[in-house]
Write a structure and sequence with these properties.
247 residues
Length: 247
């Protein structure tokens, strides 16, 4: 309410100053004709000014600001994959029985990095993300996620994530999986119903994580080719990546 009172007071003050100076102009020159010529001309130009400011200049500035925000979001996503996402995707994909046969075909059929990337996009776009819970090392997965919880909490505090709803959903899915694993004291002797529930949570994380990884790779490919090359050589779906690079 105080803000509006301040704005109203400012508006009235500016109008009174304008009237005062027009009146002063008339007292000095006694020329209403001249005053009305400039007054009508100034009023007519206001509409053109509004058009330029609101539709053109404001649009350009808003587009630049949006690009700057998205760049900051991509920096946050990059930090996530460097610290958590790539390793988590590697852990989950190793429990996916459908990945192994595709990897063998990938090695035989691709001759360049571009071919490899196209194959990854094609395969992951059609892949049914399903994890075999009998092959999952539950304790190792829990330890990894619990150790990264504080880092992910700091990511959620970043206001730029409001621009990327799908990535925020991924973070919440990872948090949920972390909590599900954390509340169970022993993960080696759970009922099958619990394992299936945990697998449902993992499959949700797995599918969302893979899609976010593809989006992040596309960003690197268009904006940072040198980072894209490294990310492709160490991609979490490549089980036969160079051991030197992996280290």
């Amino acid at each position: 309410m105080k803000l509006w009172n301040w704005r109203i007071l400012l508006g009235i003050s500016l109008l009174m100053l304008s009237v005062f100076f027009y009146f002063l102009h008339y007292l000095i020159f006694r020329d209403l004709h001249h005053i009305f010529i400039y007054l009508v001309g100034d009023v007519a130009f206001v509409f053109i000014e509004v058009l330029l400011v609101t539709l053109v200049i404001h649009g350009v500035l808003e587009e630049r600001e949006k690009k700057a925000r998205l760049e900051k979001v991509n920096m946050v996503i990059g930090a996530f994959f460097s610290e958590v996402g790539t390793r988590l995707l590697e852990i989950l994909s190793m429990k996916d029985p459908g990945i192994e046969s595709w990897q063998q075909d990938l090695v035989r059929q691709t001759e360049s990095r571009e071919d490899e990337y196209k194959s990854i996009i094609r395969y992951l776009g059609e892949h049914d993300y399903r994890i075999d819970f009998e092959k999952t090392e539950w304790e190792g997965l829990r330890e990894f996620l619990v150790n990264k919880r504080e880092f992910m909490l700091r990511l959620l505090e970043n206001p730029n994530l409001l621009e990327h709803e799908s990535f925020t959903d991924l973070l919440w899915a990872v948090f949920h999986l972390t909590e599900e694993l954390g509340v169970r004291k022993c993960l080696d002797a759970l009922p099958d119903t619990d394992y299936k529930h945990l697998c449902g949570d993992m499959n949700r994380v797995y599918s969302q994580l893979a899609r976010q990884w593809l989006g992040y790779m596309e960003h690197l490919k268009s904006s940072y080719p040198y980072l894209f090359s490294l990310a492709l050589r160490t991609n979490p779906f490549n089980r036969i990546a160079s051991p030197v690079v992996r280290e």
